[in-house]
Structure formats: C-alpha cells, structure tokens
Design the sequence.
C-alpha cells in the first residue's frame, strides 16, 4: 500500500484535525460553510494553542485577547469566536481602527482594510510580545509581521517569520511550523 507523503498530506491532516476541534465541530453544525473571513478567525483561534507567551503579557488571568485592526467596523466575521475559550482562557475579541486600542491584546490580526497604516501599526507594537497575523501580501517580510495568511486553491496557507516571533519573546510550536507553507528562521 502506498502512503502519500509531503506537505499537502500534512496540511490535509491539519485540516482533518481541525474538524475534531470542539470549535470547528460547533461551527460546522451551525454553519456548513464558513466565509473566508470566518475561516481566518478560526485559524487565529486554533493558532493560540501553538504559541507560548511570556506570563507577564496577560493582563487578564482568565482571558486571551485577540485584537482585529480593521477599518470595516460592520464586519461580524469575528463574532464566530464569541463565548469561546481555549487553554482554560476565555477569548475576548476587540476590534478597532487604531492600534493603540489593541495594545493589551496577545494577538493582533491586521485586516486588509487597515493596509494603508499597517507598517506604522507594526512599528508601534514592535517591542511588545504580541503575535501579529495578517492576510496582507508578504506581511511576514515587514518588521514585526509574524504570520501571513493566503488563500491558494481554496485552501488557507500560511508563512511564519519565526525570527520575528522570537524577537518578541514568543515561542511557536514545531507542530504549527510543520504545517506552514514556509518558515523564515
């Protein structure tokens, strides 16, 4: 029997594993088809379990804060994470068009609607232990950009800038790195 190998199989296994994640199961029962924005929100949610932050960054002991830097105030895609918890912490989503409103967050997702100011935003939080994620092209190549999301052939791929994450005192699990399309060390 031939067993396929390589990155496509790993990605398929990761996506299969996500089906067994409680959040993903709940979502698939409630809504058979996720929008692209909702899929990105679920990716961010699932990424939490593969990142270790310094203990001092948690302002709220029982919560993890996800910031969404966006100019689209009416986008409700991130509501999919309402009332969710992970690793014993409640997930709190904060949306703002101003990076300063999101400084208490452990993760900041920079939406393409905030593309105009994203370099300034990254510069403003460069000394913080905040995981930064975006779907802006080559986001990981900018100082402070850590994970770039990209949809290719209806699949969500990602690139990780591990060196940048380490500069911010973040530890990204090898389990997540194995699934990345590319890892910059």
Sequence:
């Amino acid at each position: 029997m031939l067993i396929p190998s390589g990155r496509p199989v790993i990605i398929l296994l990761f996506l299969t594993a996500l089906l067994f994640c409680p959040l993903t199961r709940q979502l698939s029962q409630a809504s058979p088809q996720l929008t692209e924005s909702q899929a990105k929100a679920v990716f961010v949610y699932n990424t939490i379990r593969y990142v270790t932050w310094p203990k001092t960054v948690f302002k709220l002991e029982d919560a993890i804060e996800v910031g969404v830097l966006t100019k689209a105030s009416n986008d409700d895609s991130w509501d999919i994470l309402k009332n969710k918890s992970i690793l014993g912490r409640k997930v709190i989503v904060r949306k703002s068009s101003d990076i300063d409103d999101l400084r208490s967050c452990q993760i900041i997702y920079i939406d393409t609607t905030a593309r105009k100011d994203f370099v300034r935003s990254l510069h403003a939080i460069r000394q913080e232990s905040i995981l930064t994620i975006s779907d802006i092209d080559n986001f990981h190549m900018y100082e402070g950009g850590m994970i770039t999301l990209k949809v290719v052939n209806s699949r969500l791929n990602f690139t990780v800038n591990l060196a940048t994450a380490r500069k911010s005192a973040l530890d990204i699990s090898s389990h997540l790195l194995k699934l990345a399309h590319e890892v910059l060390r």
